Amino acid sequence: MTLVSERPAATRPRQVTPASRANRVSRWQIYVPLGLYLLFTLVPFYWMLVFAFRPTGSMAIVPWPITFEHFDAVWNGMGFAVFFRNSLLVGIASLIATTVVALAGGYALARYNFRGKAAFMVGMLCTQFIPGALMIIPLFEIFRTLSLTNSLWSLVIAETVFQLPLSLVLISGFIRNIPQELEQAAWVDGCSRLRGFLAIVLPLLRPALVAVGSFAFIHSWNNFLFALMFINDQEKFTVPVGLAYNLGENSVDFGALAAGGVVAALPVVIVFAFIQRYLVQGLSAGAVKG
Q: What does pTM read for this prediction?
């Protein structure tokens, strides 16, 4: 009995069509534009670090020896610690207010049908086309009537109002993607609507809450116009206004200004470092129409 080995069938070479060849992208076509964009983005930050860490009068491209004299002058001499505290208070208060109101409003928009809902959504989104500078005078008159001028609460209210439309859209879009049958099962088990929301829906909203809260915090941290117009007491300045007042009329201390910029950018960098994965998930889920 002879064994006959079967030769494997020859595999047909994969045909490369013009369409598949056009869809191929080589690595250099990806890395070169990304590298140029990264270089364009990081060079200003590098120069800020150079001015912040190199000694006064030095012209070195690399900050060596490293000195912290500019940070000491900004933090202790220019009162930057007070500005940092004010910005932190405004950012945290805006984060809490925006998240709570957007959570309640987003749930109502996602779970209830009422007359004028579509018009309300359209009108709310149209407010995003109104620049903040256009609302300075009306807001100032409102805060003056309420005796809130020269108060950090005016900044919190203004930031919350301007952040709510986008936050409502993100939260409502995310809640629509959560099956309502999960809540109905909790109702059958005896939970009220509020208890079912807290037990079922709220734990699933972590990415959306992180996205909404981070945007509210960062926008309030970086906002310059409202703090400049509504606050006139130096003890209540925020970080952007404090940095602007470091610009002298006849001279500029670039070292101190760069050190203040590093301190101002540090919280934003830390926030994005910790919430990056939640931020992308929250934005993508909230943008999907349920």
A: 0.76
